[in-house]
Each structure stands twice: as structure tokens, then as C-alpha cells.
Amino acid sequence: MKKIMGVALVAALVATSVFAQVSTSLEFRQGINIADIDIKKDKDNVYNIFKQSHSPATNTTFSASTDHAGVNIELDFNLNTKEIEFGYLYGWFSVGGFKLTAGKYDSRFTDRLVKDRTRALSLSKLFNEYGVQIPDDKSRSGGEHHINVDGTKKGDNMTNGSDLATIADYTFDLDFAKLLVKGALFTPEFNSIMKSGFGFEAAFQMDLFTIDFAVKFPTAYNTSLGLYFQMKPVDLLQFAIGATLGIVSAQDEKPLVYGIDGRVRLTPLDALAITVHANFSGGVLSSDVVKNTEYWFGAVANVTYDINDMFAIFGEAKYDGLNIVYTSIAGSLSKPVDKSGSVFAQLGTLIRPVENVKLAASVQAEIPTKATSGATVAKISIPFVFDVSF
Q1: Which residues contact 144 (CB under 8 A, 6 or more apart)?
Q2: 4 neighbors 360 (Cβ within 8 angstroms)
Q3: Other CB atoms within 10 A of residue 379 CB
């Protein structure tokens, strides 16, 4: 059925070429782990050589548009699971400064400073979303008293990462700046009557800086607030800071979470880029019986140097991340639990041997900050990624 759907979509899009300007992009990406070594504590090491993995980034994108309306469809092909899935699927139209967009897609305003992440064909570990970075793994962050608030992981994304969203926005073109106001509906349901969550965004943009405020209500008692600021004071410096707050107002345990983002990108030379991302997140979950307090910190730095139009090299270091949990049950404070993650480093290269082809490879090392008997004390990998796109 999925194959039939894919063929039908392609045929429909080809038919639209009679009426609209149609553009098509194709991309194939596959990864090979040349070597993957798990060094164990008090246990035999594990070796994997030339393990192939098909990257979900393999996709086909079709778009058809006029000056005032368009449709975009992205199909993701996964040879690991033999499945075809929708990536993005949305349509839009605009009249003057008004625009309406509906479907599955992402809606962000503030620059995430992830250019080097994209160039490295997913090998880079630079952060993606602005928001709260407390790990989802319950075994790592508080067990049954895990702290999480819907909407805060993707604090700057007005579709909330949902499968279906409708967004209306209007851009006021002022003499010295632009002002964007936006209203959003997204799945799942807000409550038993209103079948969508909703949110609002206001952004102010000048040549020097942008300010973005976003508020989302994924459920009746769940609120996500975000304030993001981005500035480029000189050509060689760009930075962004953001604050995300999540509140649940009505349940036995009332979590409150927050995340502070700081990102900077320096380009002292045309061929050299230095990017640093950091995030500090925390949360409190409290009820009449239990109070759980959690802190998380992570940071990553990327340095990329273009040797020429064909070759580039990059290095990266990441701390992921300090994760401390304090739990108080019936007024008795337990010993703080350190559930910290790992230290990661890699050195790699990016190659463009011919037009439309990109290759990336690196040597990676990851060391957990804690390791029990039988656990991995270090992991060494040599990934290779092959990408062809048109």
C-alpha cells in the first residue's frame, strides 16, 4: 500500500507541472561503520567491522508552486525497515503579508546556528532544537518521578513537532524592521472538546537582531513559553540565546521545567568556522508525597576548516551531560543521584569529489562518565557517510 501511495503521489505531482512551476529534489544517503569497538569493564570487548546502515535522510522531495500558493511533499525511504514514510507534507497560500500553511512540517523563526551540523551529513553532534534538554530516558533521570512537560523539547517549533498543524501568520513590513505574528493549531487534542493544541508567536526582526516570543498550549493544563534572541553585530560573529519554560498546572505531581540555551558562531576567516552550543536545563516535580529536582548541562564545540572547494576538515567535542537528581519523599531528602552521560570527541573530513556527491568520515571516541561492571567504558567508531543529491 505504501508503494502504491508513493507512485500515486509522484504521478499527481507530475500532472501539476502543466499548471505550476514544479521543482524536484532527490537525495540518497547511506552510512557504513568501518569499525565500531565497545571496550567493556570486566567483560570481553565487542567488535563490529563494516556494519552498514541505511540513513533515514534518504528522501525524495517534490514541490509545486506559483507566486501565491504551493505544495511540498517529502517521502522518506528506509531500507532497514523496508518502509516508505512521509517526512514533510504540507500546502500553503499567501495574499500580501498573510500566509496560511497546513500539514506536517516545522515552523521556526530563530536561527539555530546548525550549518555545520548539516554539512557533516548527520555526523555532527551540535544541538538541534531550542528548549529543555532533560533526557527522556526515565532510568537516567528520576525513574517513575521523571520530569517532562510537553512542548518544551521543541520550544521554538510552533508545530510542536506534531503530525498535523495549521498555522496562519501575518508579516508587517515596517520601514526599519519586520513584525511577524502567528497563530498555530497542532495535534493532539487540547481537551475533550477542543481537538487541537494551540499557540501564538510574535517576532521582531531588524538587520542587526531578532527577538522571538512563542507560547504553546499542547493540553488544557500544559503551557510552554519561549523567548529567543539572535544577533549578528559584525560579519564574523553571530550568537543566539534562548529561554524556555514549561508548566503543568493540574495533576497530582506538578512539574515545572526550564531550559537556557546559548549559541555562538565565529567566522574569523572565510574558510574557518567555530560553533559552540550550550544548554542548562532544570526541573521540579512536586506533590504532597514527593519532590524531585533535576539539573542537566551539556555543551558542544565544532571547528570546521575548508581547505578548498573539495575538502574540509572538522573537529568536535561534546559533553553530554551533567545530570543530577535530588529526590525528597515525605520530607526525607535522599542522596543526590549522579546520572551524568558521556564525553565525546571526533575528528573528520568532508569531501566533494564530484558535483552532487558528498562524503563524510570521522574517527569518534565516546567515554561514559560512569561505568559499572560489564558496562561500556569507551566506544571507538569510524563512521562513513555517502550522500548523492540533486
Answers
A1: 138
A2: no
A3: 17
Place of cell 499548471: 19
- 329-367 pLDDT tens trace: 766 666 677 777 789 999 999 999 999 999 999 999 999
Closest CA to 276 of 218, 332, 317, 330: 317
Answer whether 103's CB lies under 8 Å from 87's CB. no
pTM of the model: 0.86
What would the mean pLDDT of 101-129 be, rounded to a whole number? Answer: 88
How many other CB atoms sit within 10 Å of the CB of residue 231? 14
Cis previous bond, 188, omega within 30: yes
Judge contact between 126 and 153, C-beta under 8 A: no
Decide: 299 and 277 in contact? Cβ < 8 Å.
Answer: yes
Q: Please list the residues that pair with 383 across neighbouring strands.
A: 33
Joined together, the cell numbers standing for residue 367 give 567515554
Encode pLDDT of 162-191 as tens digits.
Answer: 889 999 999 999 989 999 999 999 988 788
Which DSSP helix (H) or strand (E) runs through 219?
Answer: strand 209-219
Rama region for 186: left / alpha / beta (φ>0; ψ in -120 to 50; rest) = beta
What is the reported pLDDT for 169? Answer: 97
Please give the span between the terminal C-alpha atoms of the chain, in angstroms, as a whole number: 27
List, for residues 24-36, the tens digit of each pLDDT value. 777 888 888 898 8
Integer Cα distance of 224 and 215 in angstroms: 6
In the 8-state DSSP scheme, what is residue 250?
A: S
